[in-house]
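Troubleshooting log. The previous structure file for this entry was overwritten by mistake, so regenerating from the original sequence record. Sequence copied from the archived sheet and checked twice against the printout by T.R.
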Amino acid sequence: SKDPRNNLYKLYAKFLAKYQPKMFVFENVTGIKSANNGVIWQNLKKELESVGYEIDSKIQNARSFGVLQNRRRVIIIGWLRNSNLSYPDFKDQVSTATINDLFNDLPKLKPGKSDSFYKTVKPSSYVVDNEIRTLEDVLTHHQCRPNIDRDIEIYKTAISLWNDGNKRLNYNDLPENLKSHKNRKSFVDRFKVVGGDLSYCHTILAHLSKDGHYFIHPDINQHRSITVREAARIQSFPDNYFFEGPRTSQFVQIGNAVPPMMAKAIAMNIGDELKKG
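Regenerated output below.
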C-alpha cells in the first residue's frame, strides 16, 4: 500500500520528540488497525512509543459526544512515560435532538438553488445551546447541487419510502427507466435519505464531493441532496465557519474533519487529566 499518508505518523513523532508535550491526541479511521495486515498500526505504535510515550487507543463514536452523527473513529491518546496520566474516561453525552432540529431554520431549496437568509423560525435549542448558530451569524454555503430529472425522481422515491415507516430504497427496486448503473450487486443503497426524524445521520464522507446521492434531504418538496452548510451542521461546525475553495473541496474538508463538538469534549477531558499530572 503506497499511500504516502500511511507514513505521516513519522512526522508526527518528530514533533513529539522535539516539543515533548505531556499528552497528545491522534485521530484516524477505524481501518487503521487492520490496514496492511496490521503492519501500519504496529509501526505507528512503535514509533510513538520510541519518542517517550505510552499510548492507548479506543474507538469513539461522535454520537457519544453530542454530535448528531454516527461516526466511529480511532482516538489514540498518548502521555509521557512515567507521568501518572492515562486515557480519559469520556462520559456519554448522546443527544436526543433530531436532524430536523439541525435543519429547521435553514431556508428550503430546490436543486441548484442557494439562499443566504435564515428562515424566520427560531433555531432549535440544540443549534443554540451548542453554539452552532449565534445572533451575529450570516448564512453561507447554503447552496445545493443541480440534479437531473432522473435523479430527482429517484430522490422522491427514496424520500417517500423513508417517510413510509423509515424504509430504505434498494437500487434494484427502482423502475427500469430510472436505473443507469449496470452494477446491480454492490452499492444497492447508493441513494440514501438523511433521516430527519432520527437523532443521528450516517457518517458524513468526503465522497459527498463526488455526488450527493447518499445524503438526500428528508423534505420531499425539496428533492435534493444536502448543502455544504447542512453537512457542516451535521458535523457540528458553527455557522460562522467559512470553507474555502470550490464546493467539491468544501465537502471534502467537512467529510474529513473531526467534528468540533467532539474535539472540544476530548480537549476538555484531556485538560482535566493534565491537572492530575
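The mean pLDDT is 93. Archived copy saved in two places this time.
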